[in-house]
Amino acid sequence: MTFTTLTRNVFDIKDLNLWYGEHHALKNINFPIIKKEVTAMIGPSGCGKSTFVKTLNLMINYVSNVKMTGEINFNGHNILNEKLDLVELRKKVGMVFQKGNPFPQSIYDNVAYGPRIHGIKKKKHLDEIVTKSLMNVALWDEVKDRLHAPALGLSGGQQQRLCIARALATKPEVLLMDEPTSALDPISTLKIEELILELKEKYTIVIVTHNMQQASRVSDKTAFFLMGELIELDETSKIFSNPRDERTEGYITGRFG
Amino acid sequence: MNTRSKFDSHLKELKDMLMEMARKSENAIKESINALINQDIDKSNEIIQNDTIIDDLEHEINNKAIILIAKESPVARDLRKIIVALKISSEVERIADNAVNIAKSTVHIGKEKHIKEIVDIPIMMNLALEMLSDSLNAFLSEDVELAKTCAKKDDKVDEMYGKLIKELMGYVQKYPDHINQINQLAFVCRYIERIADHSTNIGEHVIYLVTGERYDLNA
């Protein structure tokens, strides 16, 4: 199966239910994710937002005792039903985690890791990808003189940008970000946010965040989850100025959650 | 547990400050009309001087609003509460300015005998005061329906304004030695009409506060 973009919606999630054993963690989720938009997921801990994001590249399959029903259509293909190449899926749907998690290798090898797995061997080609990916995350100028130094020697903010560069190196369509700045200082956080705004020119971005201002600054759409339900999904400007649901209002104004 | 009790108490303080300012403006208008009727120059001068108290209150409200925005990152209804407080304080300040304007007209007329007993102006003023009272009560209780009633009364005020101006202009030929008084009374009518407009605007701000939607009460 190949993934080609045919519709405006990169993802179209229909009636998605997910159980961890007996625990019903996602309840009848219907969620379109629009191409080249930033969609922010907000909600209290345990509301299902991270679980939801992990279903989009089937990372959730690594959790034992998970059962899912419904459809997760990625470019028109239901990834829950179709036999698919997970490596190919995750090439198209990259992921960045809460804390920068570079491999204990050089900066260069971290970024080249994905392309090598996908069969790119020529040094010139890899050099090109590494340079471009590092430029895309505004890290190039900071590391160009030490590409073969250990990635773990970078600062937290640089490590996180390296991980984004690593995700970009496989030319994904979608970038999933699970609280990508929660471990970073304010300046590194703003750099990542600037980066998100630049990256959305080319990529579709889904970001889980506990930082309301971050959601309001970087996203086009915001989704509020509560106890496994998608309570409200709307334009970010609408969610933060005049949400429809009282529970959304309560959460974003800090009255509960 | 209320997770934002301190913020909530600040929002309440902001509202209380605004209501205090509004009540002072309301009193200033009432006093300015009484002073006009009674040709009370001293009272009029007092109203003019006391306007700084209302101006100071507006600045305090603005400062508090700015600090709350800077420190609390308000969104949704919290943000609207603060923005609307800023907007209403500006309307209330201009209402108070009109009380000052009326007081100045009284001073300009001085002790010159009124060409006729002032009857209709207080009636028009009572209508405008009712509007102000309704819009402020609507703000206090966040009552959209009450806020909407301002529009109907505003039409009545506009109608009276037109009628009074016509009547006053009719006196120009009859009382050529009292042109200043006639002009000042016409100005007073205009000031009252403006007070009614500001009250209508307060009503619109209340509707925005509650619903998050813009509403033109004059449409």
TrEMBL record, chain A:
It holds the Pfam family ABC_tran. SUPFAM superfamilies: P-loop containing nucleoside triphosphate hydrolases (SSF52540). Keywords: ATP-binding, Cell membrane, Membrane, Nucleotide-binding, Phosphate transport, Translocase, Transport. It is found in: Cell inner membrane. CDD domains: ABC_PstB_phosphate_transporter. Residues 11-252 form the ABC transporter domain. GO terms for cellular component: plasma membrane. Its main location: membrane. InterPro entries: AAA+_ATPase, ABC_transporter-like_ATP-bd, ABC_transporter-like_CS, P-loop_NTPase, PstB-like. This is Phosphate ABC transporter ATP-binding protein. It comes from Neobacillus rhizophilus.
TrEMBL record, chain B:
GO terms for biological process: intracellular phosphate ion homeostasis; negative regulation of phosphate metabolic process; phosphate ion transport. It holds the Pfam family PhoU. It comes from the Bacteria. Keywords: Cytoplasm, Phosphate transport, Transport. It is found in: Cytoplasm. The keyword Cytoplasm applies. Its main location: cytoplasm. Residues 18-105, 123-205 form the PhoU domain. One of its GO terms (cellular component) is cytoplasm. Belongs to the PhoU family. Plays a role in the regulation of phosphate uptake. NCBIfam families: phoU_full. Homodimer. This is Phosphate-specific transport system accessory protein PhoU. It comes from Neobacillus rhizophilus.
